[in-house]
Amino acid sequence: MNIYFSGIGGVGLGPLAEIARDAGHGVFGSDTTESLTTDELLRQNIPFSTDQSGDFLTRCHEQKKIDWFVYTAALADDHPELIMARKLGIPMSKRDELLTQIIKEKNLKLIAVAGTHGKTSTTALMVWVLNQLGVPISYSAGSTISFGPSGFFDPASSYFVYECDEYDRNFLHFRPFLTLLTSVDFDHPDTYPTQRDYVDAFSTFLAQSNQAIMWRRDTVINIVPTKRSWILDDREIIPFQVAGEHNRANSTLVAKACEFLGLGDAEQVKSAIESFPGASRRFEKLADNLYSDYGHHPVEVAATLQLARELNDHVVLVYQPHQNTRQHQVRSGYTTCMQLAETIFWLPTYQSRENMLLPILTPEQLTGRLVNRGAVHYASLDETLWGHIQQARQLNKLVLCMGAGTIDHWVREMLASSP
After folding, report:
1. 21 in a structural domain
2. Which domain holds residue 183?
């Protein structure tokens, strides 16, 4: 079967494209821009184009006959490739339908990693640990990872480890054998109008899971655990030799999952966890005193700053808020989440999938209630900001660049062009 992925550079479709290729399907795809994910796909000789006019899709269909058109939830109904796929009569769906078919066809047990924060790191850690234990697995992680492709299918595997995202209610299409629930706050207001909607979706997801491992703190916000839920208290966090309280908590979930699955002994699992090389853009070290992180929610910012302070007493935060619609929901959470930063460079909000009826919140509006507002400097992605970053690094301060928009790509480009 030949499958075309529209939005193949995204964190959902990129890994799925690799899995489909490994499972024996022909794979083609497009996206608006190149990215770390598309670079990875091109290295694997997967045909890719930034031409989304419909012409590239037509050429692929004429050459190979596309059997299935899979598209990202971010695509508008009038997107040229969607229109062309309909015109060509190609069956189409979002990613969940294809993935559930692969899991069913290959008779795999789904290990789902869900939650508002920590999904990618925990998914990558679970993959790493099972690899170290010699367990054949297939998986899909929501980022490029240092020790392998972001998506992989192993014909010998019995398990499929999946970063099960709540955006667009994607996770409700799955019935996992085992779910690891990292944390629940509130996010994606464009999918869930209220926090109640968001929490109810997680309760539904847990009800669809054969077994779940989660934290008791998440039951306080009325997440409804099932009788098959293994509920952990904060005092049960295992003191692994890894930086960051949230990373030690997520490592504990992985260790408990291995215990539930009967894979490895405690010492083997501990050794594997403590040797984990990390995932891309999850407190990823780019150079001396320079780190990149995908986090863009106040809870994630606070957790990552706590991790950074374990390494350096002087932390400079460069922050790019993500999506104006989301800022209207999370702005109150900024009050104390950045208090561990010595200096903050605040960038304009990266806009994506916006509700055009909402006014654009300015950096001044978003930072007005910060307890350490005096540490804030308003900035842009330019040479002036790069000069401040370089100066901080030279003073042996840790510079943390956070956001899900253009900031990571900009930092890597500036670093590559620096003498």
Report:
1. yes
2. 106-274
State phi, psi for 332 to the nearest 5 degrees.
Answer: -65, -25
**CATH code: domain of residue 33:** 3.40.50.720
- What is the spatial distance between Cα 124 and Cα 147, in angstroms, rounded to a whole number? 9
pLDDT tens digit string along 107-165? 999 999 999 999 999 999 999 999 999 999 999 998 888 898 889 999 999 999 999 99
368: Cβ contacts below 8 Å, ≥ 6 apart: none
Phi first, then psi: give them for residue 259, nearest 5 degrees.
Answer: -65, -45
- What is the Cβ-side half-sphere exposure of residue 174, based on CA atoms within 13 angstroms? 30
Residue 140 sits in the same domain as residue 246: yes
Pairing of strands 159-163, 178-181: unpaired
25 lies in the same domain as 78: yes
| pTM for the predicted model, two decimal places | 0.84
**Residues 120 and 219 placed together within one structural domain of the fold:** yes
Same domain, 347 and 413: yes
238 and 306 within one domain:
no
What lies within 8 Å, CB to CB, of 241 at 6+ separation is: 274
pLDDT digits (tens, 9 = 90+) for 3-48: 999 999 887 899 999 999 999 999 999 998 888 788 888 888 899 9
Query: Alpha-carbon distance 114 to 123, whole Å?
Result: 9
The closest alpha carbon to 241, from 274, 194, 209, belongs to 274
> Does residue 344 share a domain with residue 207?
no
Residues 174, 388: Cα–Cα separation, whole Å:
46
Alpha helices by DSSP H, 23-159: 36-43, 55-64, 80-88, 95-105, 119-132
Which sign, positive or negative, has the C-alpha torsion 353, 357, 363, 365? negative
How confident is the model at residue 221, as a pLDDT? 65
Of the listed ranges 19-28, 223-232, 369-378, 398-407, the least confidently predicted one is: 223-232
